Amino acid sequence: MSDCQDPCHQHPESSLRRLLDNNREWAERLAAEQPGFFPRLAAQHNPEYLWIGCSDSRVPANEICGLLPGEIFVHRNIANIVLQSDLNCVSVIQFAVEVLKIKHIIVTGHYGCLGVHAALEEKRVGLADHWIAHVRAVFSRHEDLLMAEPVRAERERLLCELNVIEQVVNVCRLPVMQDAWNRGQELTVHGWVYGLQDGKLRDLGLCVGERRRTDALRREAVTAWMAQRAQETGAPS
Ligand code: CO
């Protein structure tokens, strides 16, 4: 380390130093609390869940769900988008389903998502505009529902929720999922939204465990969610 020319390594007080120190403490503490934890984990990878979430640093899968390393397989991108043409995301799903044999896929959006906000406000952010266009497509598909919501902040929350529903639909329509269900593999897809304000996960009530027609799945999921939303809004607080 002493002859390393990387300036980050030459300043012990740098912010990167803190990460390495934290890591050493964390690893030593976990190894002390659970002897053999790391060798055991190194020998097998057997998570039960796949998390598809936003890259936002405030939404870390393991911490939110109280899970240790080894318990959840994770894919994250801006605004938790699932695209048939995204080799990265589809490869993660294929590996999770066919190799790891995970049992649950959870698409998790979050309120206050900057990607969703940019899509709603048609804000330019740069190259990522091309990616955020997929959230804009969700807006266009559900424009009537969204524009019927007069409160802007509430409209943005609704777009976060509808985006999760659309991405759950996108997961379910992947050939790898259809094949798994045709084989009788136990596999369900869920949609959640995380609240930055309270740290709580909200279940959108989606639980797809069999091959479904895309249009019917979307229609039923959106109708059920809008009904629940109306009930919550109408209920005394
Ligand atoms: Co986000």
Please, could you describe this protein's structure?
The protein has 10 helices and 5 strands. It is α/β, with parallel strands linked by helices and 237 residues long. The chain folds into 2 domains: 1-44; 45-233, Carbonic anhydrase (Beta-carbonic Anhydrase, Chain A), CATH 3.40.1050. A 5-stranded mixed beta sheet has the order 2-1-3-4-5. The chain is globular, with a radius of gyration of 20 Å. The structure holds cobalt (II) ion. Residues 54, 56, 79, 110, 113-115 line the site of cobalt (II) ion. Cobalt (II) ion (CO) is lined by residues 54, 56, 79, 110, 113-115.
Secondary structure layout plus pairing:
Layout: H1 15-33, H2 37-43, E1 49-54, H3 61-65, E2 72-77, H4 87-99, E3 104-110, H5 114-121, H6 129-141, H7 143-147, H8 152-172, H9 175-182, E4 188-194, E5 201-208, H10 214-234
Parallel strand pairs: 1-2, 1-3, 3-4
Antiparallel strand pairs: 4-5
Helix pairs in contact: 5-6, 8-10
The site of cobalt (II) ion has 7 residues, from α5.
Task: Domain count, please report it.
Answer: 2
Rg from C-alpha positions?
20 Å
Tell me the name of the CATH class of the largest domain.
Answer: Alpha Beta
* CATH fold title of the largest domain: Beta-carbonic Anhydrase, Chain A
Percentage of residues in DSSP E strands: 5-15%
CATH architecture of the largest domain: 3-Layer(aba) Sandwich
Given as residue ranges, the uncertain stretches (5+ residues, pLDDT < 50) are none
Spatially, the strands of the biggest sheet line up as 2-1-3-4-5
Shape: globular
Series of H and E elements: HHEHEHEHHHHHEEH
Q: Structural class of the secondary structure composition?
A: alpha/beta
